[in-house]
Amino acid sequence: IVDIGAMQAAHVRTNRRAPVQICSVQTLERRELPPATVVIVDEAHVYAGVISKWMQARPDLVFIGLSATPGRAGMADEWQDLIVSVTTRDLIEAGYLSQYTVYAPTTPDLSNVKIVAGEYQAKGAAEVMAQSGLVGDILQNYVLHGEDRPTLGFAVNVAHAKRMAEEFTAAGIPSAFVEARTDTLEREAIQNAFTRGEIRVIWSVRTMAAGVDLPISGIIDAAPTRSAMLHQQKIGRGLRKNPGTEDLKVWDHAGNTLRLGFVHELDWSTLPGGKREVVKVERKQPLPKECGECHFLMEPKVKECPCCGAARKVPNGYVETADGELVPLNAETGRAKVPTAVKQEWYGCLLGYAAERGYAQGWAYHKFYEKFGIYPASQFKKIQKIPTPEVRSWIKSRAIAAAKAREARRAS
Ligand SMILES: [Zn+2]
């Protein structure tokens, strides 16, 4: 047994002579910095001024930070190195974390919600999410598809969390809500009732988004965020395996997975720099796709819903790139964002066509502009290709359009 002391007023484990001391950040802030040679900081993605000060005051100490989501802006200025020992994907594949599926039963329109320091403004998001239609949808979805799963619900603010718990309870799904001010005894009573199955859904804002280990197999996300960290922390609550909760269903009513991606695809391999009060919004992977029939969210390249078998449709106003990414049609030019590889292919075909017809290379250069709205810069190689039928028919259609335009000009 290792001799461990707890630095807290009147704690049973208080033992100043123990070589290992456990201390909360709050206690640390109120006391003088204790002597140490190694400092281990848990949940290091949460900013703590006192840790920052400690690092600056004692550069001779070794600080080891632990986090599942080292994505807070400014972390690169505090920590010198990042070691990724294992990823969420690894842990799911190895069977240590639950398999999970995500549904987007409704996706809110957040286009009018203000973004402050990179994150949705809570007031605006609450106005959208607390609309009775949406509240009703969330309830109805759980009634129809919830399978009575022990579930955590995430709401935008305390009033929203309280209301959701009330609506669920009124509909016969015993629910509770927990906030930061809920005292320890009440929280324990709620968690015990939840474990016994007497409470089905616990609603909170962020209180339940960290450090909770309850048997959970459902997550209702009704709190839009632009923070991949928060997204991962919330879904992460349901990924821990407990007897009876080996798989997780996520009902994402906030558009978070469609906006930020599946949590097992998120990349935490780089410590972000920048100002710490700004939410980092970064994504490299193509986003998940929603099944139009059953709202199951599938991997980007999947063409058929693994859940209901429906063929996936590309929504209006979007086009799909070769790697499965949906990109909006550019509203200004009516042109879609096209991957470089596709443009390179076109440039080659246009050069090939020019060679066939004995046109100058400049012809291909201008046709490329006509097609994509940009000139083929030096990144594009001048490699002639045999024109594809698609390129040939496009050239033909442009020639016809040009002829018609000439005729129209002559007639006027
Ligand atoms: Zn489906």
Structure commentary:
The protein is an alpha/beta fold. The protein folds into three domains: 75 residues, no CATH class; 179 residues, 3-Layer(aba) Sandwich (Rossmann fold); 61 residues, no CATH class. Helices cover 34% and strands 13% of the residues. It has 13 helices and 16 strands. Strands 5-12-11-8-10-9 form a six-stranded parallel β-sheet, with helices on both faces. Helix 11 packs antiparallel against helix 12. The longest helix has 23 residues. It is globular. The chain starts with a strand and ends with a helix. The mean pLDDT is 87. Bound molecules: zinc ion.
Ligands in the model, by name, code or SMILES, are: zinc ion
Number of strands: 16
- Main sheet strand line-up: 5-12-11-8-10-9
CATH architecture of the largest domain: 3-Layer(aba) Sandwich
Distance between the termini: 96 Å
Name of the CATH class of the largest domain: Alpha Beta
How many separate helices?
A: 13
Biggest sheet layout: 6 strands, parallel
**CATH level-four homologous superfamily name of the largest domain:** P-loop containing nucleotide triphosphate hydrolases
Bulk shape: globular
- Compute the number of structural domains: 3
Rounded average pLDDT: 87
Strand content: 5-15%
Oligomeric state of the chains present here: single chain
Structural class by secondary-structure content: alpha/beta
User: Could you state the order of secondary-structure elements as H and E?
Assistant: EEHEHEHHEEEHHEHEHEEHEHEEEEHHH
- The helical percent reads 25-40%
Rounded Rg? 27 Å
